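Hey L., structure's done. Input below.
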Amino acid sequence: MKASFVNQLEPGQTITSSFLVHTKEVREKKTGEPYLSLLLSDKTGRIDAKMWDGVAEVLDSFDRDDFVKIKAIVQLHQNRPQLTIHKVRQMEDAEVDFTDYFPCSPRDSDEMWIELKAFVAAVRSPEIRALLEEFLNDPEIAARYRRAPAAKTIHHAYLGGLLEHVLSLCNLSRSVAQHYAHVDLDLLIAGCVLHDIGKIHELTFERGFSYTAEGQLLGHIPIAFRMIADKLRGLPDFPPRLRTLIEHIVLSHHGQLEFGSPRVPQFAEAMLFHYLDDLDSKMECIRASIEQDRQSTGAFTSFIPSLDRPLLKKDIFLASPAGAASAAIVSPPAAPVVAAVVPAVTVVTEPTPATRPARPAAPDRPTGIFGAKLTEALHPLPGKPIPSPVKNHE
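Output:
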């Protein structure tokens, strides 16, 4: 068992504990000397860490996705906890319990899988039900589907997160379809099961969460489109127009061309599914951001790049005396200026305080064949014109 978890750290503590290295950068002090900037994580969250001295001796001893044991002091920086590291060493896999480092859904994966299969079994269209069962009954797909995160960092970014997200969408679809009588619930359930299925190959989640080469080059929408085509070869009697509707829901679920969809939603179920998917991802992002926020005081979180705003901690706000809930909101962090690159790490220089950065980009959507990153998907840049579809996208 780890000695200390991220969510237990308090300013002033001196700790000796182990973490997973999520990111590693070499930066320069104003004196020109190097220092290490790390993002460390365990199953309870992430924390920034800096190592100011003795960097040369440990620089090549560990890398991203390694486990490290550190001795450090917990301090506050911009009203958020940060580790100042004095000693660090790489750990062998045999020294760690992997369950201490990877966040996972609070729900049991077996129970969630049974629930998903029940939704599919309730699909009235025999053609749609047969297609979905082709996926769920594939042992390799099922094993990855039950374990995959829904995203790298933004929403449901934990083991089992994809399955939890899909079940949430299934329940939302069933409720909304009762309100809109003209909506086909079978098409919505197909969208729920298939829209993000490409993420089982887009993301790698055996050690840390990152993109596969296929994920970086293609993205999960083209991968899903290819997977659907593969399964439909085994269903030669599948109605061609029904296939087109399902493919359109998958291709258009990001909502807009500049958000990564090659088509915008053009019928009721596609439009409805896009908004349900967007709603569920945003609500989970809000929940997780407030739960994991480490800002020590005040009723507002730090700036959330994926939502382009800080968030109100409603419980603290309601419990605070009138006027006491207002607190300084942390501005978006300044973007570092890249100076040089060394093997396996990035060398950057510290920005000046006066620098006004561009809005930080979320890493959750790689720039692939169809375009924009997830931050743009969640909230376009103020004043940025929406581009028209170009001929190559037709």
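The CA atoms of residues 59 and 236 lie 57 Å apart. The two ends are 55 Å apart (CA to CA).

-- N.
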